[in-house]
Design a protein that fits this description.
By secondary structure, this protein is an alpha+beta fold. It has helices at about 1-25, 30-35, 85-100, 105-120, 155-165, 170-180; strands at about 40-50, 50-60, 75-80, 125-135, 135-140, 145-150. It has one domain (about 40-185): Chalcone isomerase, CATH 3.50.70.10.
Length: about 190
């Protein structure tokens, strides 16, 4: 048993430098004022039928964001690996939000129009960063340039829930972003 214990310690020591590098990833410039002191808490990759779509990073100024992301000021940074149409990004976002919670038709149409304005067509290497201000608003940047804000608590809850809700259509991505602290079975406000 002691042999296994030593091996576990050695593996942990070998992995420590990797964890340190990840936590030192540079904060996107657009977040330096909006989320000062934020650190990289998790990252993942979205693949669709094997095609690399985007990489995503979760930034927050407190590790408590892992346990209660719906109540935390945090940011998600998506770096696209291919060109995508902005209107399709908006449409898919709304569909994902509808999978997390009820979205009345009229409200969904307003949100879709706002997202079509905020989300441009993207190319490989482009970044869309979203800041969650819980209970208030979602703020967005594209390649570091401000694109707008939606001051709607329900939009904010459902939009960030695409990746962070227990009802996310991508549970492995959620797990990669939040880790084991984000997988507790406690009821969350996303589940209404």
């Amino acid at each position: 048993m002691a042999h296994l214990h030593r091996r576990d310690v050695l593996l942990a020591l070998a992995a420590a430098p990797l964890a340190a590098v990840a936590s030192r990833a540079p904060l996107p410039p657009e977040l330096s004022a909006a989320l000062p002191g934020a650190r990289l808490l998790g990252e993942a990759t979205l693949r669709w039928f094997g095609l690399h779509v985007y990489d995503i990073r979760l930034w927050a100024d407190s590790p408590t964001a892992l346990a209660r992301p719906e109540a935390s000021r945090l940011a998600l940074e998506l770096r696209y690996a291919r060109a995508l149409d902005g209107a399709q990004i908006a449409q898919r976002s709304l569909q994902e939000m509808q999978g997390i919670g009820e979205v009345p038709r009229e409200r969904g149409e307003r949100w879709l129009e706002a997202m079509r304005t905020i989300f441009p067509d993207v190319n490989k290497g482009d970044r869309i960063t979203g800041l969650q201000i819980p209970g208030e608003a979602a703020r967005f940047w594209v390649n570091g340039q401000s694109r707008g804000e939606l001051r709607d608590a329900e939009f904010t809850r459902l939009f960030f829930g695409i990746w962070l809700s227990p009802r996310s259509s991508q549970p492995q991505m959620r797990e990669a972003l939040l880790g084991s602290k984000g997988t507790t079975s406690r009821a969350r406000p996303w589940q209404r």
